[in-house]
Amino acid sequence: MLIYDLDFTTLDNTLKEWNEPAYRARQIWQGLYQHLYDSPERFSNLSKSLREKLAREFTFPPFTVKTCLDSADKSTRKTLFQLPDGNLIEAVLMRYGDPADDHEARNAKTRRTLCISTQAGCAMGCVFCATGQMGFKRNLSSGEIVAQAMYYAQMLKAQNEPVSNIVFMGMGEPFHNYENVMMAIDRLNDPGGFKFGARRMTISTVGLVPQIKRFADEMRQVNLAVSLHAADDEERLTIMPINKKYKIRDVIEACKYYIEKTRRRVTFEWALIEGVNDSPEAAKRLASRLKGLLCHVNVIPLNPTHGYHGGASNGARAQTFKQTLEKEGIPCTIRMRRGVDINAGCGQLAAYTGQEM
Fold first, then answer.
1. Is this model's pTM higher than 0.90 or not?
2. Which residue of 36, 109, 124, 347 could cross-link 154, Cys pair, CB 3.0 to 4.6 Å?
3. Which tens digit of pLDDT belongs to each residue from 137-152?
4. Which of 90, 144, 173, 269 is catalytic?
5. Active-site pick, 179, 274, 346, 356
């Protein structure tokens, strides 16, 4: 069993069954999530016999690192992990700002954002997404999701840097693996463990309507991002098959419910595809859909993938799209493309093994 799959209560009960003192579970929990120990041998405050039992009963890292790739500008690192069953997943570390800056600048500008996978592959089939092109393999367990964050947290700790943000925007549709993703979030958020703030985490979904409403009802402080990419159903269906089941109107209504329930803003993601969804007219259609919503639009020129031949919008068209939205009263940001040279950008993760580039 993977130790990261255990919540604290289960770990505590296990230690009680082993007739260990009551404080042992807390020591192990803090070792895992505060000291970031990734093997039983590192728990120097435990007896040798208990460390040996932990090694027998539990798996610690649930994967082996197959490849690490760094972008040319060193701002992005992508790691390919192999799971015990042979499935491959990727996770990304994105660096913003210079840690050598002075303290005030560092607080304002320096971020270390993790992009975490929730599935091996994806069943949503978005045509421009490399993960969607590879198809669905399986859901990740809560511990396999958590372990990706722990891997990078340990790496950053060695450099005296903390994790700033975690986005569930890697491989897979998080709401298609709802229970495991929420358990992973709870584990990362645990105040007695990793104690990572909920408002520094973001879930990205293609728009699974029942799960958006469930998420709203749970009143979580985790940020919500919805991949829209088109403002009319016919166009969206050509690039996002999920639109056959959940029309744009239904997605927007679910987002409206979320906003009314939580009083929190929704971010809408929009990949700008040249000649497809990057015209001023498309921006006006989008604005009419979003009027009155507490929302923000993130646009990013499309990142290339091997299975889709559409191209990225140029800077001028991106700016025009942004300005058109803003004139209609919709806040908009053009996101910086990162890690494209190592296939680590949005929509590019696909269990890279070395032959695809």
1. yes
2. 36
3. 999 999 999 999 999 9
4. 90
5. 346
